[in-house]
Amino acid sequence: MKELIWDVVVVGAGSAGLSLAIDLHQTGHRVCVLEREAGFCFNPQTGYDPRIYTLTDANQAWLSQLGVWSYLDLSRIQTLNAMQVLGDQDGRLRWSDDGYGLGVVLEGPHLQAALIKRAQSLDTDMIHWGVEGLTHQREERFLKISSASGQTWKTRLLVAADGRMSPLRQSFGLRHQVIPYGQTALVANYQACSQEEGVAYQRFLREGVLAYLPLPEQRVSIVWSLPTDVAQEYSALSPADRLSRLNAWGIESVVLETEISAPQLFELSKLTVKQWSVPRFTVLGDAAHGVHPLAGQGLNLGLQGAACLGRVLAQRSPGPDCGDLSLLRRYERARKESVQRFQWVIDGLINMHQKDQLGRVFWRNRGMTWVNQQPFLKEWLRNGANETL
Question: Which of 40, 61, 69, 234 is at 20 to 30 A from 307, Cα to Cα?
Answer without folding.
Answer: 40
